Amino acid sequence: MAVRSRIKTLKIDGRDVSAHEDETILQIAEENGIFIPTLCRIEGLSLIGACRLCLIEVKGWNRLVPACHTHAEEGMEVFTDTERLRNYRRMIIELLFSEGNHVCAVCVSNGNCELQYLAQRLGMDHVRFPNMQPVRKVDMTHERFVLDRNRCVLCARCIRVCDEIEGAHTWDMRGRGIDARVITDLDIPWGDSETCTSCGKCVNVCPVGAIVEKGRAVGEMTKRKDFLVYLSKMREAKK
């Protein structure tokens, strides 16, 4: 029988909470109904800490740390909603809007977009940074799906679900910084991929309107994510 880790007592936003030492601050916050924004994290996939929206403050620590990778420690005091964090998170959302093509009114994921939701939740009513007006390649070669890199936020969910759940590893990341982009296989058109199983898992985990089904009109693209937790648990049970 597996032995569960020891219990730790800590404070989150002044509230006394208890948790196992192998739990992250993000998990503990969710269990206690405390909101911490995140864009790259999705239950059922590995954690990469790419979006940095879940950064928190810890008393006595001289830097902000990601809640998804910070584990509970005895007596730690965590702050998730300070003015510093709110400003930082709004800036990240604004930069994502300025770096891509996120015109909600003409997006098929309008009303079902996690970036849109976070912008509203975090109080972003305008973008202070100039729009970079990207002209990135839209891949429509797949018979069922479309990849619009202009709307991609580089969360790597598609890469992880394809590798960890489907086992195809069709998706990958190429380039760094502003040149980073998701690719299929060795940067070939999606429709020419011999590894893609057309399962649609990447479509359902994409938080924005970057990977969508063909033929969807504005606001029609909904996502199903419940399959992830089920498949992940079944795989763990077989190990």
- Rg measurement, Å: 19 Å
What is the 3D shape? globular
Indicate the CATH topology of the largest domain.
Answer: Alpha-Beta Plaits
Order of helices and strands: EEHEEEHHEEHEEHEH
Largest sheet: 5 strands, mixed
Q: Tally of extended strands?
A: 10
From the helix content, strand content and strand pairing, which structural class follows?
Answer: alpha+beta
Mind explaining what this structure looks like?
- The chain is α+β, with helices and mostly antiparallel strands.
- It folds into 2 domains: 7-81, Ubiquitin-like (UB roll), CATH 3.10.20; 95-238, Alpha-Beta Plaits.
- Helix content is 25%, strand content 16%.
- The chain contains 6 helices and 10 strands; from the N terminus they run ββαβββααββαββαβα.
- A hairpin with a 2-residue loop joins strand 1 and strand 2.
- The radius of gyration is 19 Å and the shape is globular.
- The mean pLDDT is 91.
Tags for this entry?
five-stranded mixed sheet; single chain; 239 residues; alpha+beta; Alpha-Beta Plaits; three-stranded antiparallel sheet
Q: How is this fold's topology laid out?
A:
Blueprint: E1 7-12, E2 15-20, H1 25-31, E3 55-58, E4 65-66, E5 77-79, H2 83-99, H3 114-121, E6 138-139, E7 145-148, H4 157-166, E8 171-174, E9 181-184, H5 201-205, E10 211-213, H6 226-238
Short note summarizing the structure:
With 239 residues, this protein is an alpha+beta fold.
